[in-house]
Amino acid sequence: MHFGVSGQSRQGEPGILTLRRILYGLSAVAILLVGGSFLLPAQAVVSRSAEVAAPPEAVFAIVGDLRRFNEIWAMADLDPEVRYSYQGTESGLGQKLAWASDNLEIGSGVTTIVDYQPPQRVEFRTVAGRERALTEFVLEPIATGTRVTWTYTTPLAGVPDRWAGLLYDSRIGPEFEKGLANLKSLAERASPTP
């Protein structure tokens, strides 16, 4: 048996050294994950724009009415059984859309109009589980009709949220693109060009 300088046996030390290395490695990874999260944005922002060959008033008639929101953002595509109810005012500031679904990707929540400036801008606050988000549509008149910008903003409070925030654009962006294509089709059908 080999004795070290201190007179203790080295038998079994390779196992302890391996365990220490694993623990140091895990600690380093944890420090990098937590520390790295503070370098990431504190909110996720997803934004897409499209040009619609219709006047801002025709576009606003669709985006400014939560009763028509499913024509743009079709939750029914993910769950045909999603349940909707409308509360608050008939239209404008305070109008609410509540939804419930057994599909975990949709869940349940409430969207409320919190800023209403026809035909330029409408902003919604959404509360769905732990998620708190603001969504806005900004309408800008252009020579060919309207430029619509759809933006979603949500705070990213914790370490996992900040890392998950890196995926928001790739996950939500394509849905916004589909929604803007739906909006374009609806608005252009409602306002045919001469």
Say what oligomer this is: single chain
Per CATH, which architecture of the largest domain? 2-Layer Sandwich
In the sheet with the most strands, the strands line up as 1-7-6-5-4-3-2
Continuous helix count: 5
Provide structural commentary.
This protein is an alpha+beta fold. The chain has two domains: 1-39, no CATH class; 41-190, START domain (Alpha-D-Glucose-1,6-Bisphosphate, Chain A, domain 4, 2-Layer Sandwich). Helix content is 34%, strand content 31%. It has helices spanning 13-37, 56-63, 69-72, 159-164, 168-190; strands at 43-52, 83-87, 96-100, 108-117, 121-128, 131-142, 145-155. A hairpin with a 2-residue loop joins strand 6 (131-142) and strand 7. Helix 2 (56-63) packs across helix 5 (168-190).
Short description:
The protein has 194 residues and is α+β, with helices and mostly antiparallel strands.
Keywords summarizing the entry:
disordered N terminus, 194 residues, alpha+beta, 2 domains, Alpha-D-Glucose-1,6-Bisphosphate, Chain A, domain 4
Helix and strand topology:
Blueprint: H1 13-37, E1 43-52, H2 56-63, H3 69-72, E2 83-87, E3 96-100, E4 108-117, E5 121-128, E6 131-142, E7 145-155, H4 159-164, H5 168-190
